[in-house]
Task: inverse folding
């Protein structure tokens, strides 16, 4: 049985965004059975947890003797089990893997930096200047992505793990209109997020938030 680990509590702004939903989404797309075990924010600091995830984060994936961390690596592992999230065509399969890395290594870093800056430093004097610089970089990435996707339904052939991860990255911009208002990226994002497996993944994550905030 596949087991994934997720948090039992997160603050409100993080609900529906914690990256175990990427793993749930991939498993739902592939029709693979799995169970979810939740951990507290206190438990993630234990030596036992660090043996699974050295950086004290989630998600973690277990299957037999295999333990994996990092949502992108887990999604790719799940996708490689068949041809639902990676094409059976060897060329398209490898191209989709390239887009997996593009989503996580090219598009996500400036977006994640902007989100972190907003959460932690929005009251600082330098915040507005930093946001302006980050917006320039993000909009540049989005423009290149939109240019590539123009005339395409998905990144490579049919919907794949690359689209799953790219859509999850773009969701981090939901507080802006940069994706939603774009004539290419807006419909692309809507196609990705209208998939039943995505909705089930989010519903599952929300249902598992049964814990309490950690003591201060």
Result:
């Amino acid at each position: 049985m596949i087991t994934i680990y997720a948090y039992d509590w997160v603050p409100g702004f993080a609900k529906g965004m914690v990256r175990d939903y990427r793993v749930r989404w991939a498993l739902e797309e592939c029709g693979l059975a799995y169970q979810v075990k939740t951990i507290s924010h206190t438990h993630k600091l234990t030596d036992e947890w660090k043996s699974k995830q050295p950086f004290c984060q989630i998600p973690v994936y277990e299957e037999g003797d295999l333990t994996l961390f990092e949502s992108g690596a887990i999604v790719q592992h799940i996708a490689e089990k068949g041809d639902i999230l990676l094409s059976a065509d060897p060329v398209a399969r490898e191209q989709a893997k390239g887009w997996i890395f593009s989503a996580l290594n090219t598009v996500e870093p400036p977006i994640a930096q902007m989100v972190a800056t907003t959460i932690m430093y929005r009251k600082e004097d330098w915040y507005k200047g930093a946001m302006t610089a980050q917006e320039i970089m993000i909009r540049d990435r989005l423009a290149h992505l939109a240019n590539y996707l123009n005339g395409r339904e998905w990144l490579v052939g049919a919907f794949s793990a690359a689209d799953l991860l790219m859509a999850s990255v773009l969701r981090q911009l939901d507080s802006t209109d940069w994706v939603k208002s774009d004539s290419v990226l807006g419909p692309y994002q809507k196609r990705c997020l209208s998939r039943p497996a995505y909705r089930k993944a989010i519903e599952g994550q929300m249902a598992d938030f049964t814990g309490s905030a950690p003591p201060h």
Observations:
- DSSP finds eight helices and four strands in the chain.
- Helices lie at 20-30, 47-50, 71-79, 90-121, 127-149, 161-170, 185-193, 196-207.
